[in-house]
Every structure is written in structure tokens, then in C-alpha cells.
């Protein structure tokens, strides 16, 4: 299979590392479950049942539905983790192959996004991520104290419409 997308190639490599010691039959069954759920629109439990039956018929191995479910859920977790690590990996590869730091200055909070001006250290609002809990509480208190107070000096007048109506 040829993967043309860089992110998909990274995810495939990440999965290959995580599932290296799994038997080929199990990896094939997990891919088949994904096919049944995404392409055929089957329910997850039904797809696991069908995949388990196919595994018994094709390979003569009964992994058990609970084991297959846990392995499928862990595969989904691995894919999610790989997607989260992909931006940092691309920065690492660009720095490694460029033999120098990137020309674009990046936000110091660790998000990996480019800063608009060269003199700035953070993207607007990202400096909050580097504050300690005490600093966040202090700045929250300062902002609450600076907020204008809502004081209503108007008195509420209650009118008794029954007596008003009877007087006329």
C-alpha cells in the first residue's frame, strides 16, 4: 500500500511500532472491524462479532470478543495519540533536516504555531499556559476587582392596582 499523505504515513509507522508484537491475523481482524464500521455502517458490537466469526473460519483462532474489543479500542487510542504527536514530529523532522533552527519563530508555550511578529514570544493569549496556578488566581482576582460594580440605586415601587382601580 502506498501512502501519499505524510500524516497517514506517520500514523501507520506509529501503529506499526505499537502493534509490532501482535499477530498478523489480529491486525487484519482489527482492520476488518474498522472497514465494517466505517464503510459498511455496521454497529461496533456487530462488527466485532462478524470479525470474530471470520477469524475463526479463516485462521482457526478464537481471540474472544472482549479481547478483540479491547484491542480495537486501544488501536483507536493509538491513532488519536499519533494525530496529537504529528505536529511536533513534523517540527522535529524540519529542524533535523534543515541543520538549523526554523526561520519562523514559534510560540514558546509549546503549541508549535508560528508567532506573527519576530519580537513576540507568544501568540496572543498563549502566555497564560505558562503561568503557575497561584499567578492565574492572582490575575483572576485582579480582573474581578477591576470590573465595574453593578450598583442599582433605583427603588422598586409597588403599585396596588386593585385599590387604584377602585378609587376611580
Q: Please tally the helical runs, counting DSSP H or I stretches of 4 or more residues.
A: 6
Main sheet, how many strands, which sense, barrel? none
Q: Oligomeric state of the chains?
A: single chain
**Residue ranges: pLDDT <50 for 5 or more in a row?**
none
- Round the mean pLDDT to the nearest integer and report it: 84
Rounded Rg: 30 Å
Structure description:
The chain is an all-alpha fold and 168 residues long. It has two domains: 93 residues, no CATH class; 43 residues, no CATH class. Helix 1 crosses helix 4, helix 2 runs antiparallel to helix 3 and helix 2 crosses helix 4.
Describe the secondary structure blueprint for this structure.
Blueprint: H1 6-18, H2 24-38, H3 44-59, H4 65-98, H5 133-146, H6 161-166
Helix pairs in contact: 1-4, 2-3, 2-4
Observed structural traits:
168 residues, mainly alpha, 2 domains, flat
Give a brief description.
By secondary structure, the protein is an all-alpha fold. It is built from 6 helices and no strands. The protein has 2 domains: 6-98, no CATH class; 104-146, no CATH class.
Amino acid at each position: 500500500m502506498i501512502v501519499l499523505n505524510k500524516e497517514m504515513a506517520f500514523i501507520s509507522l506509529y501503529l506499526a511500532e505499537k502493534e509490532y508484537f501482535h499477530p498478523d491475523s489480529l491486525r487484519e481482524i482489527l482492520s476488518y472491524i474498522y472497514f465494517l464500521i466505517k464503510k459498511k455502517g455496521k454497529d461496533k458490537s456487530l462488527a466485532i462479532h462478524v470479525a470474530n466469526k471470520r477469524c475463526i473460519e479463516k485462521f482457526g483462532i478464537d481471540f474472544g470478543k472482549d479481547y478483540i474489543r479491547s484491542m480495537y479500542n486501544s488501536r483507536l487510542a493509538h491513532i488519536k495519540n499519533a494525530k496529537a504527536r504529528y505536529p511536533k514530529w513534523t517540527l522535529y523532522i524540519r529542524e533535523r533536516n534543515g541543520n538549523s533552527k526554523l526561520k519562523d519563530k514559534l510560540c514558546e508555550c509549546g503549541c508549535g504555531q508560528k508567532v506573527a511578529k519576530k519580537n513576540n514570544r507568544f501568540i496572543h493569549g498563549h502566555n497564560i499556559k505558562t503561568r503557575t496556578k497561584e499567578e492565574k488566581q492572582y490575575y483572576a482576582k485582579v480582573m474581578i476587582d477591576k470590573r465595574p460594580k453593578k450598583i442599582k440605586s433605583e427603588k422598586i415601587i409597588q403599585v396596588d392596582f386593585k385599590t387604584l382601580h377602585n378609587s376611580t
